[in-house]
Structures are given as structure tokens and as C-alpha cells.
Amino acid sequence: MNLNEFGEIVKKQIEWLTEQYKYVEIHNYVVMPNHVHMIIEIDRNKLMVGTEGTARELSVQAQGEEIKIKSVSSLMGALKTTSSKLIHRSGFEDFSWQRSFHDHIIRNEKSYQNISNYIDLNPEKWKSDTFFNC
Predict the structure, then answer these.
(1) ∠ CA(40), CA(22), CA(77), 5° rounding?
(2) Among 21, 58, 60, 41, CA closest to 106
(3) What does the alpha-carbon distance between residue 87 and residue 65 come to, in Å, rounded to a whole number?
(4) Prediction pTM value
């Protein structure tokens, strides 16, 4: 998929999620002309540190604030809000995301592989999408 400047903004903001929230890992994603697919993992173990051979969960950041793990809904809200603001500033003032999103919990390796393959192959299917020429 060749992204335009607005698609590049969305791509950058997806990657920003992993920088902003250290417990987030994006395993796979694709930015399509009218939607996004991604596999996102929330792993609180990324906030663990060793203490004399044991691990404990971090409860404070360097600034002394408690780390709160965001839900998938909150993370999607952050992605949509930040990318919308940047897209509006870039000149596409009428841009808006659909109101909700669809999520699915991946419970096993087979499901993970199926969804990851779907994401990888989604750009090839774009020309047959009902919204292709809209």
C-alpha cells in the first residue's frame, strides 16, 4: 500500500503508540485508504524490573507518577485523536474516524497467524473492496 501524507500520519501515530506506552507492542498493521488493521498487545510485564533476583511491577514513573495501563479502547482513542489533529493541521479538515472499532482477542497461535496473514494480504484485496472507487 502506497500511503499518501495522511496515511503516513496514521502510520507514524501507530508507531508512536509503542513509544508513548512502553507496555504496548504492535505486532503487525496495515494502513488502508479507509481503515486500519493491527495486532496490538498490552503487556504489563514490559513494566517489570529486576530487584535482587526478583521482579516487581513498576508503580511509578521517573517523575513519580503512577503508571496506568490503558485499555484497548483508550489506546484507540489516543491513536484516533492524535492522528486526527495532525491530519486536520495538514489540510484535510473534514477527516474523521468512524465512531467505534472492532476488536478480537487472539487466543492461540493459529488465530494469530490467520489474523496476521489477513493483515498482510489486505492491500492485495483493496481493488475488490466495495469502497475502492468511492
Answers:
(1) 55
(2) 41
(3) 31
(4) 0.80
pLDDT computed for residue 51 by the predictor: 43
Question: Residues 6 or more apart from 30 whose CB is under 8 A from it?
Answer: 1, 36, 37, 38, 119, 120, 122, 123
Cell of 119: 493483515
Asked if residue 76 belongs to a domain, the reply is yes
Residue 95's CB is within 10 A of a number of other CB atoms, namely 15
Burial 28-47 (b: 16+ CB within 10 A, else e): ebbbbeeebbbbbeeeeeeb
Residue 25 belongs to some domain of the structure: yes
**Is 132 domain-assigned?**
no
Q: Which of 123, 19, 132 is nearest to 79 (CA)?
A: 19
Q: Which grid coordinates belong to 22?
A: 512502553
60-101 pLDDT, tens per residue?
Answer: 344 455 678 899 999 999 999 999 999 999 999 999 999 899
